[in-house]
Amino acid sequence: MPFPQIFDNTFPQIFTVSHNAFLYHSSSIVNLVDYNWPDKYGGRSFSGKFGDNAVWRLDGGTDTVTVAPEGYWTLSEPGDYEETLFDFEQYLEEHGVWIGDIVERVHILEGITSIEEGAFRNYYLFELELPSSLQRIEDGAFYGTEVGRALFLPENVSYIGKEAFFDMKVYDFQVDSRNRYFASELGVLYDKQMTHLISFVGSMGKSSLEIPVGVQVIADGAFFKCEELQNITLPMGLQSIGAFAFQNSGIREIVIPEGIEILAVGTFLNSALERIVLPSTISEMEYCSMSCPNLREIVFMGPPPAVIGEDVFGGCPEDMVIRYPVQYASEWDKNGVATWQGFRIQPFDASLGVPDKL
Fold first, then answer.
1. Structural domain harbouring 355
2. pLDDT tens by residue, 341-355
3. φ/ψ (deg, to 5) at 62
4. pTM, whole model, 2 decimals?
């Protein structure tokens, strides 16, 4: 795996953070206190190269790694460098240590303009700082990463790739108000016009959320593995919900607003969903869109969907009840059999509104 490119004011270049990389300013550290290095390295200092233009230094006495631009340190004896040069990431892999588990703080330096695909995948950080020079965050850059403090998206970020914040959990998330492309509210990342909900980045510790009126699109995986989120209110005017939007989330009950026509692939796959109300506009339910082990009740406000994908209800309890408006009885119960898709069906009077929970 390539290592990061590091920038310092004494090295006026523009760099990129590479795949599965970690960055530190020369005055910052990576704490390795919880990792027991082999005795033969104890108390000694080691240095090595990070890619083409960066170096790292391990202080064996304090279990601290510092990463800096190449040439930042002047070695007291030229021989020391060659004697102690080794691939730090390879060393960790050989000893069964995942680098994302031992890095606690990441400070990305000014001058870095891009964070590449998967750069900080599955890290558990106390702190993450992004520079104002940052412009692009590529696909899956922070996939599965958790940050214990607030994350601030700088003003110059103009591109965020697919799944860049997929399954990312942050204590709080904010976008610089001067950013021309993105906005945030209550820890949620939106486009600047707040018509597209991109990701619930700041989901840590939040159990409920009301999405504001004006949002038209919920992106793929926007609430993926937001396990603490139990209650959510969707706005009228919402036009589409992306694939896997609520997969493995903690949502217990939800009302899908009128206008939504398709439940995309895996929308609620393996979520904690117990009850859902679907609008009369639903016409298609795609693969595994409703595969929820705790789902007990589905309320349709209109006729049965014209298209039902494979395993839409795979894994649902056998005693799940599907409720439909008596006004559409002829379409739901065509053969006089009180089942649909293998589940028991039960009519209700839609003129009285959404029925109470069973």
1. 207-358
2. 889 999 999 999 999
3. -110, 0
4. 0.77
